[in-house]
Specification:
By secondary structure, the chain is of the alpha+beta class. The protein has a 7-stranded antiparallel β-sheet, covered by helices on one side. The chain has a 5-stranded antiparallel β-sheet with strand order 27-26-23-24-35. The radius of gyration is 35 Å and the shape is globular. The protein starts with a helix and ends with a strand.
């Protein structure tokens, strides 16, 4: 047989293996390095290729079309050994095949790789600068999976990430951290390799967990592991990374469960809480990585909203009302997700609280924590017994006292141990942890027997003794770990407890965003207040008080549903404050804002007016400063048909914008719109002139600096007439849209202009998706032709669906066919609401409707609505994919503007990166963000227009910032933080 005939047999053998792998992997690629040939087979294949290439050195024979896979396997082996010098690929190929790799051979080799990609779905190169520069060798190197060049870098980066506290079980966070590490390296090959997110995440996970399964073949991972260990530095790095991962995983396996807690008011249970355990920082990160909860949120069945997962894992609580029976497994992830892996399911099961009938009442009779048989109850304590009546109404409760003999006997028969009265132990308790105290704080022990000193762990004497009233307390400072206290001479029982090292937690403080706010920030709704706390608090009262010289005090009060919280400027408490401020405006000087939150130190901040504010005198046409001195400052003018600022004289007709030709922080904050006595309603269309993609004007066309400056001036300008103010806002919107078009492109703006505003609420999104899937219309429902009736029906649908499913995510997690039937009834009720409206007006209307829709279609609509809030239509326009993944999963309802800058900076990819220079830095990102969110702040920076113009050369970053602005505004509309008292 000829060499090509023998190669054809090897081709079929390799092709069968790759075809099976491709079918199993579906969307994941197959790499030619997974050819499955042993070392001896490779030697034989090279000999066959040598003989075949002697007869056909240019690969021109048609027989190669059925024999090319062995050639790809051999060249992929060369790609695996590639060291990145740029000269050691083709020489090695020539050495292996004893053949001169001329131009015809190289072109044909690439053609066969492309054919293999079409026929067997083998991997193809990416689109990095290196791969575009070396398109021929990019194919075999891409099919080498992890070349030897990259393996030491990967091992060291994994060790560095795990040392920094990144969870080895959180592939997304691990991948993002490795990308940041790769950005700082001289070679960009490792960074380019990390752009293959799925492949990189799979390789990293399998290297950290060698015994785990995955879509890549185990043989190639074992080979990579063996080659890693041949390099001493890489071997030490991967060994340490695995050791850190194993240690953390062992800690995660022993995660304690949550506990049920009864909240008490006047010694009566009001509602049930699920309180999470207190976990160290590393363990919390591991648990969050295993659960992969979107936005790091967790909820419970019966809860009205989700809470941050990391807050829950530090003793945070979730309120679930007062059900008739304790739920068996109440904890669930926030929203419907892909199925958890085995580790994630184990963690979620381990966190579920155990049911019990007994609750130990804490100090102050504020709450009672679940206790279980075998635990020791303190002397002179009270226990609430939960009595399930079997009825759907609220359960019954009875109080037991350990001091009462009959009650104590009931508790002993139930398996509890009653402590002796002579020994008491107190420390700083941790929420959700029984008999656990915070480390670094002393433990106080009191024994009733006079002259008998308690001992720690049976042998350690107290450091000192302090006396409070008639009682003596021994003071101990135990180390972290389990301990016990006993007084053997007094015959008292042993008391067990544990000292727990406190995890990192937020401090209890009040912070304002922006850090140095002005009156303009308060008036425009851009001022927010963040209330941070180390543990979750509920029902916390907040009060805002605004004072200024000679003005009456303005106050507003409300209640924070949960702390930590971000109180946005659009919340009700700020709206009430601005409403009062509008009635009694502050004309001059600074004002002081006092933010008081129960249990927190009051924060006082001075709200400064604009610096050197200018005012315009209509009679003289001059500008004057606050000191009263008039200045010869030229005036810039803009109109609706010419909205860009330019020099000129005021026209006594029509709508005009007047701005002093001075520094932006002086001039734009004092911009003025005059209507010159125009009719009550004289609409004027805004005509945006031609612009050029440059920073400044060019060839009689305006640049982005002029366009952005005019947009901010129209946005901040003052106008007394309500109709004129509406027109001013419309012109500002047109100019802002023009800036957005320049920075983000026509495709982006078309998507943005087509957004349905109903998706600003979760139930509006449900109605929107239900309408698209013909769930709220069809032949069995009346045809609504009037636009006003359709809008009214839309409102009725939103209200009825909100009444039926208050929480869309919770409805998905508890989905059943009954829920779909209830949604059908909600649609019928909404049509009935419209029918009754027509009858009340005496209009002819439709008959009573009836309808039924498949349950799976309703579920699909709710799933689509849950995703719709993330604005998925913009996904194809935000690159690379890892930036989209970082932005889409952020919880915008809890982020300040500084947090938004951090988020954008953490996933930034600079299109114009050069060594030692960054084109779009944090200052450029902040300027772009402030332009869209708070123009009053952006003008405070010098040369802000030129800084904004940097985004002209980085469309991807401009789109990312715009997406963040849209999501942040959506969260401000859909997530009210304040409920009035």
């Amino acid at each position: 047989m000829s060499a090509l005939d023998l190669l054809k047999e090897k081709h079929q053998e390799i092709g069968s293996r790759i075809s099976r792998m491709s079918e199993d992997r579906r969307s994941f690629p197959v790499f030619m390095i997974e050819h499955g040939l042993r070392a001896d087979d490779l030697i034989g294949v090279r000999d066959l290729l040598w003989r075949a290439l002697e007869r056909d050195p240019s690969l021109s024979s048609p027989q190669w079309n059925w024999s090319y896979l062995p050639l790809l396997a051999v060249t992929a082996e060369v790609g695996y050994r590639y060291r990145g010098t740029g000269t050691d690929f083709w020489p090695v190929v020539e050495q292996d095949l004893h053949h001169i790799a001329g131009g015809g051979f190289r072109s044909a080799l690439v053609r066969f790789f492309e054919l293999g990609h079409r026929e067997f779905a083998i991997a193809k190169p990416g689109n990095s600068a290196w791969e575009r520069h070396f398109p021929l060798i990019a194919w075999p190197i891409a099919n080498a999976l992890v070349p030897l060049e990259l393996q030491p870098q990967l091992a060291r980066a994994l060790r560095q990430a795990l040392r920094a506290g990144i969870s080895g079980n959180d592939p997304e966070a691990l991948h993002q951290y490795l990308v940041q590490i790769a950005v700082g390296q001289a070679s960009r090959r490792f960074e380019n390799w990390l752009q293959q997110t799925d492949t990189a995440s799979e390789v990293m996970r399998r290297l950290l967990h060698p015994a785990s399964d995955g879509w890549l073949s185990g043989a190639i991972l074992e080979r990579i592991d063996r080659d890693l260990r041949k390099d001493a530095g890489a071997s030490r790095a991967i060994h340490e990374a695995r050791r850190i991962t194993e240690r953390k995983f062992r800690n995660v396996v022993s995660v304690p469960p949550a506990r049920y807690v009864l909240a008490l008011k006047e010694q009566s249970p009001t509602h049930l809480l699920v309180r999470g355990p207190v976990l160290p920082t590393e363990v919390r990160q591991e648990v969050a990585g295993l659960l992969r909860s979107p936005g790091d949120r967790i909820r419970a069945v019966g809860a009205d909203r989700a809470v941050p997962l990391r807050t829950f894992l530090f003793g945070g609580a979730i309120a679930i009302g007062l059900p008739a029976e304790l739920p068996a497994a109440p904890l669930c992830l926030d929203g419907e997700l892909e199925q958890l892996d085995e580790s994630g399911e184990k963690i979620l099961a381990a966190l579920q609280p155990s049911s019990t009938s007994f609750f130990l009442v804490g100090a102050g009779f504020v709450e009672a924590q679940a206790v279980f048989p075998g635990e020791q109850l303190p002397a002179r304590s009270h226990v609430i017994r939960w009595i399930a009546t079997g009825e759907p109404s609220a359960p019954e409760f009875s109080w037991l006292s350990t001091a009462d003999k009959a009650d104590a006997e009931v508790l002993r028969r139930s398996g509890f141990v009653i402590g002796k009265t002579g020994l008491q132990v107190m420390g700083l308790p941790l929420p959700g942890a029984a008999s656990k105290f915070a480390a670094a704080f002393p433990v106080f022990v009191s024994a009733s027997s006079v002259g008998i000193s308690p001992k720690l762990d049976g042998s350690i004497d107290p450091g000192r003794v302090m006396r409070v009233g008639d009682q003596s307390w021994s003071v101990f400072k135990p180390a972290c770990g389990e301990h016990w206290i006993e007084c053997s001479e007094a015959g008292d029982s042993k008391i067990l407890f544990e000292m727990v090292e406190l995890p990192e937690a937020e401090s209890a403080e009040i912070a304002l965003d922006p850090p140095r706010p002005t009156l303009a920030d308060l008036e425009s709704g851009n001022l927010s207040v963040r209330v941070s706390a180390p543990v979750a608090l509920e029902g916390v009262r907040v009060r805002l008080r605004l004072t200024a010289g000679g003005m009456p005090t303005i106050t507003s009060e409300g209640v924070l549903e949960r702390v930590p919280a971000l109180v946005r400027g659009t919340s009700k408490i700020f709206q009430e404050l601005r409403a009062q401020l509008f009635k009694t405006p502050i004309t001059s000087g600074a004002a002081k804002l006092r933010v008081s939150v129960d249990g927190f130190r009051t924060e006082v901040v001075e709200l400064l007016p604009p610096i050197n504010r200018l005012t315009y005198d209509r009679d003289t046409g001059l500008w004057s400063a606050e000191d009263g001195l008039s200045r010869e400052i030229p005036t810039l003018i803009a109109t609706a048909d010419a909205p860009i600022l330019k020099s000129g004289r005021a026209d006594p007709r029509g709508l005009q914008l007047l701005v002093a030709d001075a520094r932006d922080h002086e001039a734009l904050s004092a911009a003025l719109v005059l209507d010159h006595g125009q009719p009550a309603f004289a609409p004027q269309n805004c005509i945006v002139p031609p612009v050029v993609r440059e920073a400044v004007s060019l060839s009689d066309r305006f640049g982005i600096v002029d366009l952005a400056r005019s947009a901010v001036a129209w946005r901040l300008a003052q106008c007394r007439n309500a109709i004129s103010d509406w027109q001013r806002s419309s012109i500002a919107g047109e100019l802002e849209a023009a800036v957005t078009r320049m920075l983000c492109g026509d495709a982006w703006l078309e998507l943005e202009e087509g957004l349905d505003l109903t998706i600003l609420s979760s139930h509006g999104a449900v109605v929107h998706c239900a309408w698209r899937k013909w769930l709220t219309r069809g032949n069995d429902l009346p045809v609504i032709s009037s636009r006003s009736d359709r809008a009214r029906l839309n409102g009725y649908l939103i209200q009825r669906l909100r009444d039926e499913i208050p929480d869309v995510s919770l409805a998905l997690s508890e989905w059943d066919d009954d829920t779909a039937g209830n949604l059908d009834l909600a649609v019928i009720d909404a049509y009935d609401d419209l029918r009754r409206y027509h009858e009340d007006l005496g209009h002819e209307t439709f008959e009573e409707p009836d309808m039924s829709r498949p349950a799976h279609v309703w579920k699909a609509a709710l799933q689509e609505a849950a995703v719709l809030a993330t604005l998925p239509m913009f996904r194809p326009l935000i690159l690379p994919a890892r930036r989209w993944n970082a932005l889409v999963n952020a919880w915008y309802g809890e982020l300040t503007q500084d947090d938004l800058v951090d988020l954008l900076d953490s996933c930034h990819v600079d299109s114009f990166r050069r060594p030692g220079f960054r084109w779009m830095g944090r200052s450029e990102i902040r300027t772009l963000l402030q332009f869209w969110l708070c123009p009053a702040q952006v003008i405070a920076g010098e040369n802000w227009g030129e800084t904004l113009a940097h985004a002209l050369s980085d469309t991807q970053t401009a789109r990312a910032v715009r997406y963040v602005c849209l999501r942040w505004r959506l969260a401000a509309r859909d997530l009210p933080e304040i409920a009035t008292a």
